[in-house]
């Protein structure tokens, strides 16, 4: 009987140790006791699984930073988050952190998304005056879609001003997601077309220079760039 009691006690101790280790590895695992939402828990888990260095090196500290990130943004941001792209949350947090420096405002981030093909009008062989088509063919237009993230101090009419900036660079806005933080910053995420290559360096530089030249009020500081270079804009 004493052996059975000893075995049971040992099992309880082992279970307690295992639970403690699991909690240390994943500090947001128990959302009910920590106040973390299920979304935060899932995003944290995805980033931990991917072995993101800043997450793996200090999970407890990162868990708190992630919680603060979601707390300062509106519920609409959480609704927009795609947990399959958990790294986007990390990117948004870094951009907002960078925006805290007045000399870096506005903060721009550009990345290529994908090529979108637009079917043209059908050309039938019977209507082909050149006689070079033997079958129905279709012209295809190519659009390069980019994501542009902008962060700066929040203020009225900022969206319309940023829209004017993108238009000046020659971009067409296909999607716009706008979020204001509780501490006075903004996070604007645009999906655009109009830049005719996949490269992003030229587009990023053009955005910075155009903002510095015509829209200095964006910064709340300064960018330190000269007038925009025409060669960087789309032809």
How is this structure best described in words?
The protein is built from 9 helices and 4 strands. It has 235 residues and is of the alpha+beta class. The chain has 2 domains: 1-73, no CATH class; 100-235, no CATH class. It has a 4-stranded antiparallel sheet, with helices on both faces. Helix 8 crosses helix 9. The longest helix is centred in the N-terminal third of the chain and has 24 residues, at 2-25. The radius of gyration is 25 Å and the shape is globular. Residues 147-227 form the ACT domain. InterPro entries: ACT-like_dom_sf, ACT_dom, UTase/UR.
Helix amount: 40-55%
With strands numbered from the N-terminus, the spatial order across the biggest sheet is: 1-2-4-3
Shape: globular
Summarize the main sheet: 4 strands, antiparallel
Our estimate of the beta-strand percent is 15-25%
Q: Class by helix and strand content? A: alpha+beta
Distance between the termini: 87 Å
């Amino acid at each position: 009987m004493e052996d059975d009691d000893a075995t049971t006690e040992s099992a309880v101790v082992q279970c307690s140790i295992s639970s403690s280790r699991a909690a240390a590895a994943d500090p947001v695992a128990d959302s009910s006791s920590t106040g973390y939402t299920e979304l935060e828990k899932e995003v944290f888990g995805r980033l931990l699984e991917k072995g993101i260095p800043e997450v793996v090196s200090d999970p407890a500290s990162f868990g708190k930073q992630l919680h603060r990130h979601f707390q300062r943004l509106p519920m609409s941001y959480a609704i927009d988050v795609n947990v399959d792209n958990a790294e986007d949350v990390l990117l948004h947090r870094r951009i907002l952190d960078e925006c805290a420096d007045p000399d870096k405002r506005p903060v721009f981030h550009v990345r290529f998304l994908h090529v979108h093909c637009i079917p043209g009008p059908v050309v039938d062989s019977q209507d082909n005056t050149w006689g070079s088509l033997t079958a129905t063919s279709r012209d295809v237009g190519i659009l390069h879609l980019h994501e542009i993230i902008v962060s700066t101090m929040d203020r009225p009419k900022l969206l319309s001003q940023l829209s004017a900036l993108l238009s000046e660079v020659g971009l067409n806005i296909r999607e716009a997601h706008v979020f204001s933080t509780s501490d006075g910053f903004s996070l604007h995420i645009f999906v655009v077309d109009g830049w005719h290559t996949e490269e992003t360096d030229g587009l990023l530089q053009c955005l910075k220079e155009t903002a510095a030249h015509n829209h200095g009020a964006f910064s709340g500081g300064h960018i330190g760039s000269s007038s925009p270079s025409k060669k960087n804009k789309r032809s």
